[in-house]
Amino acid sequence: MLDNANLSTGGTSIDVTEKVHPFFKNIAIKLTKDIGLRLCGVDLIIVGDISKPAKSWYVIEINSAPGLDHYAALGKKQQNIVEALYTKVFKAMGKK
């Protein structure tokens, strides 16, 4: 077994969206805006419990073209989240 976090090469995905403290969501939103993107993947390493603000955290990657297919494959709920996200993005692009 590979010790691997990359989903495209065999890593495992666990949905913790509902457990993540707003502190980290706000960090991801700020980073996205600061680098001028409308949509991206922000990978963080959190030292401690993700349901609480942390004193120690690190940005390991900001991906301007995140692959959401692995997340959507986790289940119907995640698939609906991805579909709603893309619908929102496409509607926003049409307003230009």
What would your notes on this structure say?
With 96 residues, the protein is of the alpha+beta class. It has one domain. Helix content is 38%, strand content 14%. It has 3 helices and 2 strands; from the N terminus they run H-E-E-H-H. Strands 1-2 form a two-stranded antiparallel ribbon. It is globular, with a radius of gyration of 15 Å. The mean pLDDT is 87.
Concise synopsis of the structure shown:
With 96 residues, the chain is an alpha+beta fold. The protein contains three helices and two strands; from the N terminus they run H-E-E-H-H.
Give the rounded overall mean pLDDT. Answer: 87
**Which strand order spans the largest sheet, edge to edge or round the barrel?**
1-2
Radius of gyration: 15 Å
The low-confidence runs, each spanning 5 or more residues with pLDDT under 50, are none
Distance between the termini: 47 Å
Sheet-strand content, in percent, reads 5-15%
Shape: globular
